[in-house]
Amino acid sequence: MPDTDTISRGQTELKVERPKLHKVILVNDDFTPRAFVVRVLKAEFRMGEERARQVMTTAHQRGACVVGVFTRELAETKATNAVDLARKEGYPLLFTTEPEE
């Protein structure tokens, strides 16, 4: 039996890439109450009261605001869950996702 220490084996170098990230974006609308937007941000994105109000205010003033950056799957799940919460309450609140550059 050959000595395994002397057998030369080709080594394969594995490249591990970070997953591509996606932004979750809150889109402003004129119908969803601000308090409800803050509640959704706190519930789905685990924001504190002050941070949630800042994000909501930025979206209100600029038309949209990045809520967070996550892996694609997590971003899509969070955006969908947030929209579902709004629909259950009858609000047109919208969260979208897009790749981070």
Could you please describe the fold and organization of this structure?
Helix content is 43%, strand content 21%. The mean pLDDT is 91. The protein has 3 helices and 3 strands, in the order βααβαβ. The longest helix has 17 residues, at 72-88. It has a domain at 30-99: Ribosomal protein L7/L12, C-terminal domain/Adaptor protein ClpS (Ribosomal Protein L30, Chain: A, 2-Layer Sandwich). Helix 1 packs across helix 2 (49-62) and helix 1 (34-45) packs antiparallel against helix 3 (72-88). It has a 3-stranded antiparallel sheet. By secondary structure, it is of the alpha+beta class.
Give the helix/strand layout.
Layout: E1 21-27, H1 34-45, H2 49-62, E2 64-71, H3 72-88, E3 94-99
Antiparallel strand pairs: 1-2, 1-3
Helix pairs in contact: 1-2, 1-3
Coarse structural class: alpha+beta
The CATH superfamily of the domain at 30-99 is known as Ribosomal protein L7/L12, C-terminal domain/Adaptor protein ClpS
Helix content: 40-55%
Distance between the termini: 55 Å
Radius of gyration: 22 Å
Kindly state the number of beta strands.
3
For the largest beta-sheet, the strand count, sense and barrel status come to: 3 strands, antiparallel
Query: CATH first level of the domain at 30-99: which class?
Result: Alpha Beta
